[in-house]
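pasting input
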Amino acid sequence: MNLDLTPEQRAARERFRAFANERIVPFADAWDRQEAIPRELIAALAAQGWLGSLLPPEVGGAGLDRITYGLLIEEIGRACSSTRSLLTVHDMVGHALRRWGKPEVKDRHLSALAKGERLGALALSEPNAGSDAASIETRAVEEGEGFVLSGRKKWTTFGQIADLFLVFAKVAGQPAAFLVERDAPGLSVVPIHGMHGTRAAMLAELHLDDCRVPRTAMLGRPGFGISHVAATALELGRYSVAWGSVGILQACLEASQKYAAERVQFGAPLAEHPLIRAMLAEMIANVRAGRLLCLRAGFLQERSDPAAFAETMLAKYFCSVAAAKGASDAVQIQGANGCAPDSPVARYLRDSKVMEIIEGSTQIQQLAIPRFDFPEL
Amino acid sequence: MDETQTKIKEFLSRFFKNHDLQPGEDIFSLGFVNSLLAMQLVAFVEKEFGFTVEDEDLDLDNFRSIDAISALIAKKRGA
């Protein structure tokens, strides 16, 4: 197993980093306050080919390998978790559609998703169904040439502006997945404001009131909506969240190192105080360990190795927990300054908590991970 | 067991530790088979046997036992 980056991957990382530093970092706190990212940013991401970046060139995607994709997500996630979450959910929808969509639906939407002309969002969670995804209450009933969907979806990231929703509903008690267009009759979108973290991720509730979709809108078959379609999307989501968590942790480390070098207390920079150094040491160790776990998961994904599933879950678990701890320490190092309005580390702390919840909570990962065999390295 | 069945058994044995899985045994009756295994199983048969699991293959009976998975592989190879 060789986890060294290729020269091309290193060059790509520099491009991602430069973009993030110029186009995102200076504005991320303002977007967080405004609870929205600008359309211009989304257009710039699309122009770079970073919306649908994993989709193949034949449909207009950038066709990035999984490692390069991870580097992109880390750099965007280091700058702004809300912007990173757009890439995550959009990619999840494109990935699931490519894998399980009907040919005519792929023809209609995949290229537009790959080019960022349309935005995708995932609609799985409901008011009464979070970690227990199989308990969704949204129903789909066959009627005429299609299905009629009824129910409510909650916490749909970028639901406020998405054009296509991957909606999960039960057909005669069996979980199924549907691609629902924003202008589908019976679909209404209600913005959610005041979230604790990833505040600029433009969350929404979806109200499906006898929402009609054609038969071809179904991905996969009834009974396989959660186990196969959602699982396909969520595996990529976990990978993306793992890398995004590494990005948060890297941002915490950089902010902490800078602050600890400049801030003088008791006659010495904070970095000279042993208890501060301990926190910095843990951040350095965790960001490097987390990145290695992500690289290993990406390496296995590139080989289509079934073991990638468990390794990706492990990476998501470790990185999100480490990001939350690192962000908490980053605020602690900065004291009251870290709690101030517009403090980036306060934003990292709020965003890191979200990482421990989305795409399978820390506790769901803890329940699942011991059930897998992890082969020797 | 032929080579295909042996490979399937080897893969599934990772999830059914301390259990000597038989070719016709219903894996759904043994617990564990959920979304954690489902996509790994798809990834395994696709990578190991070189075909794509399509919509029409999504039938629990195709994945119920070593024999059933082996039959799906034979069908896909013959298709």
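fyi The longest strand of chain A covers residues 146-156.
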